């Protein structure tokens, strides 16, 4: 689609009922109670708790917040991905560069859109939440470092339809459409195109790679002339199941919960069944033999509730994708670099450093 095409909002505005609005009061009181309780239990948290006292309280409150609030309430509270991007751009005094994509999606440029290399980024949020402004802050800082090192690269953020407004395979279709736009309409060599995402966005990254090798029956095939330059996934949501030990082991270290994951997974899947595209861990090893990328990075925090499922996935694919790089970053929760930025911490995390060094090697 042409850059000048009129922009259509990706997601409709959420209008809460009176009951949903009134529910914020008991929800807020519950969060206050959680914070007080965490302040007490944090003093005797032991090895099963978060690494620091402050983190223990923060994660307890966020954990309750995410499962206590409905998807509609959360959507009401947060700006859309497009609005977050515009807020970021205005704050930096730069002109937003947004492209209308097929299937109702949008793409947002970070950096020079004529750069030689492009990173297509799929944000996380359980397919239910938009990208926070922290996403754009984090990756603009990374982009600045890469450009300063002589790397000619820009980021292209996909704004996709959130669940339950859009159910599988809507988001995968839009993710493929973003790649189709970059390789066909901007005429870039696939070897200069990188895919990446966190959590649900990592799910999409792996789903797009699957589609390139094994076209999804409900999505238009996309043939590329060469493998992609690389792909990276931060704490990818590879399994909708929640029976791995890390869900229990890290229950008080991470800020995600079983209840939250189950709710978001159901909203995303709808009436569909888990398959090789949305449930990457169930794909047999041979599925990945013809993966269309020159490099693959998978990285996750040791305190993440999904770390064991990510490890199982990597162990399954590595024999057939030997160039897979896997890093477990000690002491970090789910998507640590992003959650840290969300709470104002700009220090580079181990996960952030892992991605930066990978780009320095592969760009």
UniProtKB/TrEMBL annotation:
InterPro entries: AB_hydrolase_fold, GDXG_lipolytic_enzyme, Say1-like
Domain of life: Eukaryota
Source organism (scientific name): Arthroderma otae (strain ATCC MYA-4605 / CBS 113480) (Microsporum canis)
Keyword Transmembrane helix appears in the UniProt entry: yes
Coiled-coil blocks: none
A Pfam family recorded for this sequence: Say1_Mug180
Molecular-function GO terms, alphabetical: hydrolase activity
Alphabetic keyword roster: Hydrolase, Membrane, Transmembrane, Transmembrane helix
PANTHER family xrefs: AB HYDROLASE SUPERFAMILY PROTEIN C4A8.06C, STERYL ACETYL HYDROLASE MUG81-RELATED
TM annotation in the entry: 24-44
Name of the molecule in the record: Alpha/beta hydrolase fold protein
């Amino acid at each position: 689609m042409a850059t000048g095409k009129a922009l259509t909002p990706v997601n409709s505005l959420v209008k809460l009922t009176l009951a949903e609005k009134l529910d914020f009061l008991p929800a807020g009181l519950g969060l206050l109670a959680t914070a007080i309780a965490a302040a007490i239990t944090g003093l005797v948290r032991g090895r099963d708790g978060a690494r620091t006292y402050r983190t223990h309280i923060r994660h307890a409150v966020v954990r309750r917040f995410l499962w206590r609030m409905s998807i509609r309430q959360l959507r009401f509270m947060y700006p859309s991905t497009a609005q977050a991007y515009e807020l970021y751009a205005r704050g930096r005094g730069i002109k937003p560069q947004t492209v209308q994509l097929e299937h109702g999606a949008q793409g947002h440029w970070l950096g020079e859109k004529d750069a030689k290399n492009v990173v297509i980024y799929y944000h996380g949020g359980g397919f239910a939440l938009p990208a926070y402004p922290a996403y754009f802050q984090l990756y603009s800082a990374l982009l600045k470092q890469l450009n300063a090192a002589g790397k000619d690269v820009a980021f292209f953020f996909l704004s996709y339809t959130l669940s339950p407004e859009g159910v599988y395979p809507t988001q995968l279709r839009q993710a493929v459409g973003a790649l189709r736009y970059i390789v066909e309409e901007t005429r870039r060599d696939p070897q200069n195109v990188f895919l990446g995402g966190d959590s649900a966005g990592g799910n999409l990254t792996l789903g797009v790679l699957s589609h390139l090798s094994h076209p999804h029956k409900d999505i238009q095939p996309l043939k590329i002339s060469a493998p992609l330059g690389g792909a990276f996934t931060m704490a990818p949501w590879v399994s909708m199941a929640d029976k791995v030990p890390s869900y229990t082991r890290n229950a008080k270290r991470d800020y995600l919960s079983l209840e939250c994951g189950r709710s978001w997974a159901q909203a995303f899947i709808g009436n569909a069944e888990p398959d090789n595209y949305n449930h990457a861990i169930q794909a047999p090893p041979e599925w990945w033999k013809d993966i269309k990328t020159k490099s693959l990075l998978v990285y996750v925090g040791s305190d993440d509730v999904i770390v064991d499922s990510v490890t199982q996935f990597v162990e399954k694919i590595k024999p057939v994708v030997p160039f897979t790089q896997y890093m477990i970053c000690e002491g970090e929760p789910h998507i640590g670099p992003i959650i840290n930025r969300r709470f104002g911490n700009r220090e580079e995390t181990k996960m952030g450093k892992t991605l930066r060094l990978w780009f320095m090697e592969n760009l």
